[in-house]
Specification:
Layout: E1 9-14, H1 20-29, E2 42-44, E3 50-55, H2 60-66, E4 71-75, H3 76-82, E5 87-91, E6 97-104, E7 119-122, H4 125-135, E8 140-143, E9 159-164, H5 168-172, E10 175-184, E11 186-190, H6 196-215, E12 218-226, H7 230-236, E13 244-247, E14 253-261, H8 265-274, E15 278-284
This protein binds phosphoribosyl ATP and zinc ion (ZN).
Phosphoribosyl ATP is lined by residues 14, 17-19, 56-58, 75, 77-78, 95, 97, 149, 162-169, 184.
Length: 290
């Protein structure tokens, strides 16, 4: 591998798998273009001093801790399990999941005491060990690499400790989730001893990521409103500082612009209609620069 250059940030991301696509998309939206069709093990971005190193997610924390890569995009679960010394600099808002204890669905489960003397299959033995120590539970932890969910039916274990997202995999294997132990999402990690030059580049990248992440799930809203209702409308859609209000050619009316969370959109629209808003437009937002 080429030596890690001082002039360029090297970011390790997952080669393929659940985090690859969204990692590339985040970089692209932050103005760091990588041509996935022409990608090599190490690929230079076209418009930012950055190169991407493609790895298995398991190898990303160590690669960053050693300084072979300066930064990495990886699940917090991997960072926590591996325990290498890296800085978690930013939560990235995708790859959300939890690591949970699950038991066969017919088990009458009351509390973590249930696990005393039981065999638990997992790919996350360190996180589980720590949890059991906190709970004062003594159990047999069996580390297995993949398909943890079939271990109880195969007679290999009494329970599992595995990643859960929708819960569908547990249900289809006759299991039920009984303890949610660790919550994870994709995070940006950094080598703790980056040079000043690289730290400055990281700040630019972090600022751009923040703008991209902030704009997700937000909508731009504009409407016509009787001028005397402006105060009420501001209480409904306060925006970042306050909404923009422009006069309309027709006396007594104005145009009000604001941003809202997509989740709250319909609720806000209904409240605005009640106070007389008309011609409401909802637009998608590209970036929010705070
Ligand atoms: O090849 P490589 O080693 O790079 O990839 P991998 O196979 O080890 O990891 P991958 O691509 O499966 O996951 C990468 C990261 O995505 C994980 O480390 C988590 O941080 C995150 N993530 C988010 C998930 C899930 N959601 C997820 N649902 N990782 C795995 N799963 C699996 C889980 O193991 C279980 O088998 O999906 C199944 C459960 O899903 P539900 O929706 O049925 O509950
Ligand atoms: Zn992996």
């Amino acid at each position: 591998m080429n030596e890690n250059s001082e002039k360029m940030l090297r970011v390790a991301i997952q080669t393929k798998g659940r985090l690859n696509e969204q990692s590339v998309e985040l970089l692209n939206e932050a103005g760091v273009s990588i041509d996935e069709n022409k990608r090599k093990f190490l690929t230079r971005a076209t418009d930012f001093p950055l190169e991407v190193l493609y790895l298995r997610d398991d190898d990303i924390p160590q690669t960053v801790a050693m300084g072979v890569a300066d930064l990495g995009i990886v699940g917090l679960n991997e960072v926590e399990e591996k325990g290498y010394k890296v800085d978690v600099v930013q939560k990235l808002g995708f790859g959300n999941c939890r690591i949970s204890l699950a038991v066969p669905k017919d088990v009458e489960y009351m509390s973590p005491d249930y696990f005393n003397g039981k065999r638990i299959a997992t790919s996350y033995p360190r996180i589980l060990e720590r949890y059991f120590a906190e709970q004062g539970v003594t159990a047999e932890i069996h580390e297995i690499a993949g398909s943890v969910e079939i271990a109880p039916a195969a007679g290999i274990s009494d329970a599992i400790f595995d990643i859960v997202s929708s819960g569908g995999t547990l249900v289809s294997n006759g299991l039920k989730e009984v303890e949610k132990v660790f919550f994870s999402e994709a995070v940006l990690i950094a080598n703790p001893s980056l040079s000043e030059e690289k730290r400055a580049m990281l700040e630019v990248l972090q600022f751009r990521f923040e703008a991209v992440i902030d704009s997700r799930g937000m909508k731009y809203l504009l409407m016509n409103l009787p001028a005397e209702k402006v105060e009420e409308a501001i209480r409904i859609v306060p925006a970042m500082r306050s909404p923009t209000v422009l006069p309309l050619a027709q006396e007594g009316w104005c145009s009000l612009h604001s941003v809202v969370r997509e989740k709250e959109l319909w609720d806000k629209v209904e409240q605005l209609k009640k106070i007389g808003a008309e011609g409401i437009l909802v637009l998608s937002l590209d970036k929010i620069i705070r």
